[in-house]
Amino acid sequence: MARFRRRTCIILLLFILFICSIMMALKTLRPDRAGFGDPFGLGLLPELQQRTVLLDNKQNSLNRIQGDTATRVSNLHGIAVNTMKASMPPVIKLEEELSSPNYNFHIFYYSWFGNPQFDGKYIHWNHPLLPHWDPKIANNYPKGRHNPPEDIGSNFYPELGSYSSKDPSVIEAHMKQMRSASTGVIVLSWYPPGMADENGEPTDDLVPVILDYAHKYNLKVTFHIEPYKDRDDRSMYHNVKYIIDKYGGHPAFYRHKTSTGRFLPMFYVYDSYVTIPEIWANLLTVSGSQTIRNTPYDALFIALLVEERHKHDIHRSGFDGMYTYFATNGFSYGSSHHNWASLKAFCDSNNLMFIPSVGPGYIDTSIRPWNNHNTRNRVNGKYYETAFSAALLVRPEIISITSFNEWHEGTQIEKAIPKRTGQVVYLDYKPHKPNVYLELTQKWSEKYRKEQEQWLM
Predict the structure, then answer these.
(1) Cα(452)–Cα(397) distance, integer angstroms
(2) Rounded CA separation 71/64 (Å)
C-alpha cells in the first residue's frame, strides 16, 4: 500500500512538472511588448511590435469612424493576410494618408545610377575599388570593380535592386518614400549639362522628370552643386542662371522664405572650400566683379564646412550659410555633434544659416576597403536618433539628411533588404523593416515641428 502511494505521488509530481514546463514554453512564445529604449526615450521597436502598433492605430481609427466593434474581427484577419503577403510590394498610399511634407527637412538625393535596361550598362553600381593614396597600404587591399547585379558598390542592397535613376517607376517610388518620411526638400546632386562625376554619366536631362514627380508628391527640389571641372565665380554665375532660367518656373522648384520676407532659391555648394574666398567673393558679395547679388539670379548659397577655420572663409566669401554633410560623428570638425552649438552661435552672430547634417550611419568599405576606421554603426537606428537629438538642441532653421540614396557610403535611408550571394553578405536593417529609417525620419520630423513651435513662442 505504501509502495502504491509512493508511485502515485511520483506520477503526480511528474505530471505537475510537465504542466509547468508547457506553461513556461508557451510564455517564451509570447511577443515581448517592451521596445528597447534609448537615452531620449524614443527607442526603436522590434519589427513585430511595429506591425502590431501600426495595426492597432489603424484599428482605433476605424473604430472611431465606424463605431463598429466588428472591425476588430476584420483587422485580426488582416494581420494574418498581411503576414502572408509580407514579401509582396506595398500598397500605394493615398495622398491624404501620407505624412505632410516638412520643408525644413532637406534630404540629399543622387540620380547617378544606371542599369542595362535603361542605360545600356551599369552605372555606379559597378563602382571601382578605390586605392589608398599610400602604395604600401594600397597593396594590402583588393583591386578591380564590382560586378552587378549580384555584386554592387555598396555594403547594403536596395529593395529596388540595382535600379536605374532614369526608370520612372523608381523615381516615383523614391518620391513616395521621401514623402512618407515627412521630408520636404530634395537636394539633388547636380553637374552642369554634359558633365558628370568620374564614375557616372551626365544627369541634367533627368531634372524635369524629377521635378514633375516631386510636384506630384508635393515635394520641392533644390540643387547640390558638385565640384565640376573649372568651377569658379564665372562658371557658377552661368550655371545658377541656367538652373533658374530653365527650372525656376516649375512649381516644385524650391524657394526659401528669408527673414526679410523674400523668397529665394537655395543652392548647396559641395566642396566649396577648394575655391579660395576671394573667388567666391567676386560672385557672392555686392561689390564683387561677378556679383549675383540684387540680380534676378540672387539666391541663398550654402557652403560646406569641414574644418573649423572654414567658418571664417565662408563668412568672407559672402555665403549665406553652412552645412556639414558628413554622416560621421567625429570624422571632421563640422560633422562632430559637440561642435554644432559653437557653429550655430558663430552663424547667429554673423547672420548666417547653420544647417547641421544628420545621417543613419556610415560605411564605405565596399569602395574604400581600407577605410574601416571611419565606419559608424547604425546601432539599430540609435546612431540616427542621436544625430537628430544633437541637431534639435541647436534649434536650426533647417536640418539636412545625408542621405536618401548614397549607397556607396552607406548613408542611405532608402529601403534596403537582406541579401546573400556567393561570397557577399550584405548588411541590412534587421531586426526592423526595410522602411525603418523612413519611419524614424518621419518621427523626428514631427518632433522637430513641435519643438519649433516652442522655439518661436
Answers:
(1) 9
(2) 11
Strand-pair partners of 362: 376
Measured at the CA of 105, the angle between CA 270 and CA 318, to 5 degrees, comes to 40
For residue range 288-343, what is the model confidence (pLDDT) as tens digits?
Answer: 999 999 999 999 999 999 999 999 999 999 999 999 999 999 999 999 999 999 99
Q: Residue type at 71? A: T
Separation between Cα atoms, residue 106 and residue 170, nearest integer Å: 20
Q: How far apart are CA 305 and CA 299, in angstroms?
A: 19
User: Could you please report the per-residue DSSP string of 97-159?
Assistant: GSPPP-TTEEEEE----B-HHHHSS-BSTTPBPPPPSSHHHHTTS--SB--TTTS-SSSB-BT
The whole-model pTM stands at 0.80
CA distance readout (Å), 221 to 24, 73, 107, 216, 248: 56, 44, 10, 12, 10
Give yes or no for a contact between 209 and 203, defined as CB atoms under 8 angstroms apart: no
Helix (H, G, I), strand (E, B) or coil at 281: helix
**In whole angstroms, what separates CA 63 from the centre of its chain?**
34
Q: Which of 122, 242, 247 is nearest to 194 (CA)?
A: 242
Residue type at 259 in one-letter notation: S
**Residue closest to 51 by CA, chosen among 16, 76, 18, 14:** 76
pLDDT digits (tens, 9 = 90+) for 218-248: 999 999 999 999 999 999 999 999 999 999 9
Please give the DSSP secondary-structure letter assigned to residue 271.
T
Task: Give 39's DSSP letter.
Answer: T
**Closest Cα partner for 409 from 97, 61, 112?**
112
What is the Rg, in whole angstroms, of the alpha carbon atoms belonging to the chain? Answer: 26
> How far apart (Å, rounded) are the C-alpha atoms in residues 153 and 242?
33
> Is residue 71 over pLDDT 50?
no
Cα(320)–Cα(398) distance, integer angstroms = 13
> Is the distance from CB of 240 to CB of 223 less than 8 angstroms?
no
**Torsions phi, psi of 268, nearest 5?**
-85, 135
**What percent of the chain stands above pLDDT 90?**
76
Return d(Cα 431, Cα 51) in angstroms, integer. Answer: 12
For residues 378 and 451, give the distance between their C-alpha atoms in angstroms, rounded to a whole number. 25
DSSP letter assigned to residue 274: G
Separation between Cα atoms, residue 369 and residue 144, nearest integer Å = 12
Answer left, alpha or beta for residue 116, where phi above 0 means left and psi between -120 and 50 means alpha. Answer: alpha
Q: CA nearest 321: which of 332, 334, 331, 333?
A: 334
Dist. CA 434–CA 414, nearest whole Å = 8
More confident residue, 293 or 11: 293
